[in-house]
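Quiz preparation item.
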């Protein structure tokens, strides 16, 4: 290539890039009135998160979702946001999509680092991720602070090793203690002639937690569910001085989770009805275990969005708690534009869908791309590959966004931009995703 040709190529490239940025900004500005660029990993300065802080300033509960459970930059940014919420916004509790019993057992064990107890107990997509390990170290380092950042789980499926080893015995010991010296209202199950059988209950509860139930007879299954609900009702209606994890109601929460595992295994409940005990657990944690505390809830989009389960609109955790707490909740959504993620079911790497030319013209993700090159919030230029955009729904120009779509559940569904507030309140859009470790 001679010198003249080289110069022409460089000029053509520069003009094309400049034109693309001008067109991009022209398309973007009518659709979104304000976009804030944020760093993904930086923790020595949180100034770029100030607009997010303003958006959640009057909220007591902040949901931070994820579309796939497998996005490296998503985990990193959310970990950073947790630290920001703790240090600068007064949030004191992190509720994680992991076992209610397992995480509490880990939190009580102050002698062992969370990252050492996490494998096999905390959800496996979290337990081994680098950003999560750093977050666990941060939480451990704040145990003696005032206030600390408390870690708790809200999933009722009790899938960790600690649940398999100890949950059933814990339920028996605690239940017998409460039932032996607490007055049980005579109205509970008064129409059911039931002789509770601890040997029967323990044997099959253990099998259910291990997902190996040998109960195939419908009558025996019904008997197990009947006995489980009888014990659940007794404990849930006991009034004692104990509160939080020391209460009879905590034991009832564990029983409820096992009931739902059994019902789903035996086909009497939909798979997504695990959300109902999860919602009950989060409500109990907020109202009883950590009353008057500001709480972060970290989990999958399918649980945390306020529209309900994908397409079906059956109630999920988000829709149920939105009815309960309404104006106290802010749902922050996390999504990507390009790259790939790790599928949590089989650990394969899945690329984000490539958009056709027609799709690009109708997609918010495409309209946002130029903003990564043009927007900064501080003196230090944020690196293009290590940044995201925060957008609050109030800054969407609904008229100009008419007909525009964006990625929804696991990048397979689409959501109209004008309807995103039916699912969440604000969004962090990450330019490029890599699979979690």
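Solution:
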């Amino acid at each position: 290539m001679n010198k003249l040709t080289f110069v022409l190529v460089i000029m053509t490239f520069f003009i094309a890039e400049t034109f693309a940025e001008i067109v991009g900004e022209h398309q973007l500005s009518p659709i979104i009135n304000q976009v804030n660029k944020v760093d993904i990993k930086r923790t020595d300065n949180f100034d770029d998160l100030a607009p997010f802080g303003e958006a959640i300033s009057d909220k007591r509960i902040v949901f931070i979702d994820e579309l796939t459970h497998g996005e490296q930059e998503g985990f990193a940014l959310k970990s950073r946001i947790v630290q920001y919420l703790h240090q600068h916004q007064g949030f004191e509790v992190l509720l994680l999509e992991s076992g209610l019993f397992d995480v509490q057992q880990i939190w009580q064990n102050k002698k062992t680092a969370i990252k050492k107890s996490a494998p096999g107990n905390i959800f496996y997509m979290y337990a081994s991720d680098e950003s999560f390990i750093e977050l666990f170290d941060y939480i451990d380092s704040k145990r003696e602070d005032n206030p600390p950042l408390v870690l708790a789980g809200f999933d009722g499926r009790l899938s960790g090793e600690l649940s398999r080893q100890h949950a059933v015995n814990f339920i028996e010991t605690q239940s017998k203690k409460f039932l032996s010296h607490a007055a049980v209202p005579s109205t509970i199950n008064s129409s059911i002639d039931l002789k509770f059988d601890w040997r029967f209950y323990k044997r099959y509860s253990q099998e259910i937690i291990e997902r190996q139930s040998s109960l195939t007879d419908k009558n025996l299954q019904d008997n197990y569910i009947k006995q489980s609900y009888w014990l659940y009702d007794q404990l849930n209606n006991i009034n004692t001085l104990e509160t939080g994890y020391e209460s009879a109601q905590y034991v009832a929460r564990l029983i409820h989770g096992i009931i739902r595992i059994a019902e789903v295994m035996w086909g009497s409940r939909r798979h997504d009805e695990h959300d109902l005990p999860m919602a009950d657990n989060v409500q109990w944690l907020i109202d009883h275990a950590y009353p008057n505390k500001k709480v972060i809830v970290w989990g999958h989009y399918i649980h945390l969005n306020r529209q309900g389960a994908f397409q079906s609109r059956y109630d999920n955790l988000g829709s149920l708690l939105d009815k309960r707490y309404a104006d106290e909740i802010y749902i922050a959504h996390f999504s990507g534009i390009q790259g790939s993620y790790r599928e949590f079911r089989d650990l394969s790497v899945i690329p984000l869908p490539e958009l056709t030319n027609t799709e690009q013209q109708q997609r918010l993700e495409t309209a946002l791309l130029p903003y990564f090159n043009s927007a900064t919030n501080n003196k230090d230029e944020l690196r293009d590959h290590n940044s995201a955009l925060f957008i609050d729904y109030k800054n969407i120009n609904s008229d100009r966004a008419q007909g525009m779509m964006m990625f929804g559940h696991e990048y397979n569904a689409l959501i109209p931009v004008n309807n995103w507030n039916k699912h969440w309140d604000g969004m962090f859009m990450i330019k490029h995703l890599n699979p979690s470790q």
